[in-house]
Amino acid sequence: MIYDNKISKLITKLIRLxxxxxxxxxxxxxxxxITKGTNDIFxxxxxxxxxxxxxxxxxxxxxxxxxxxxxxxWTERVRFAILDEMNIVVWENHEQSPALLDLLNxxxxxxAGFDDLLDDLLDDEGDISLFKS
Length: 133
What we know:
5-stranded antiparallel sheet; 33% strand
């Protein structure tokens, strides 16, 4: 599809902007428009505003059915979505890609302050002051 390449470019751009702290993602509960009427679990839901659009990235755990074993099993996927002003999904990407996982990992690292933690742990001056009496 013609949009796949554009979506890939957008996700790559969001990874770069997130890494450079040019956009900040907020952690929030997923809106009812996503969770209502399902038994799915949403352990992570991030939202940001990019070029006046509400953009969301979230992890969705859901049950699927394996016809070979005739059993349900839990699996997960990452979703990329555009939300309106009321946090209703107006568009959602259904294709899974390594870039989506990279974006999720980048957002998680930023939300956790992982880069700052590494800087603090690698700070030589801080190490010296810890051992002074």
